[in-house]
Amino acid sequence: MRSFLHQRSSASELLDERAYHDLEELRGNLRDMARYDRSLGVFALAIRLVTAALPPTGTGYTGLDVGCGSCDFIAYAWQAASTVRWVGVDVSPDVLCVARQEHPELVEICAQGMRLPLADASADVVTCIHVLHHLNPPEAIALLHELRRVARLRVVCLDLNRNASTLVGAWLLTRLTSRNRLTRADGVQSVRRAYTAAEAADLARQAGWAHLHTRLHGPFRYSLMLMRSLA
After folding, report:
1. Which of 28, 34, 66, 119 has its CA at a distance of 20 to 30 angstroms from the CA of residue 97?
2. 16: in domain
3. 101 belongs to a structural domain
4. Range of lowest pLDDT (2-11, 113-122, 161-170)
5. Residue 201 and residue 134 in contact, taking contact as beta carbons nearer than 8 Å
């Protein structure tokens, strides 16, 4: 299995191909992903890494979640980090349609992460959760460059770490907890497409991330952080 995972898969996920039967199947997949991220502590980890960049007495910060999906992280973040006002960006009109139905009170923008329609340093903190593995290396470098450009204080990227443990874990999790066709197929393919932490760090350096911090969070995921001074 290690040799099987030595190279990253280039095969697309069903979500990226829009190969879902209807919005209800897509909604079920997005709900599964949000449920996993809440229960496995991904949302909480992202908030901890984001708020570490902000003075505890400050208010009125802006947050941008790129690849926001159904906006469940933003809904979580509004409760967990009330000093930050969040906006979501996603490239898929269908995904944002689901997001607006699930969270009509939130603000989303339909745009590509590689070409964000935002000014330099226009967001205090930027998050990007489980997006990098959807992109091939040139696209990933372009995305990371854009995240760096629009962030004033910190960028936090979280993603799956490609290895045998993550693959087995994804297979078991999706088979035991979901009957959604997209969830079962893409949960495993996400791991096959994922970058290792070292590969992701190399992409970030190519994107110009000078103050880069890479960290493994157990065997299953890693974080990339671009940290800037408050000065």
Report:
1. 119
2. no
3. yes
4. 2-11
5. no
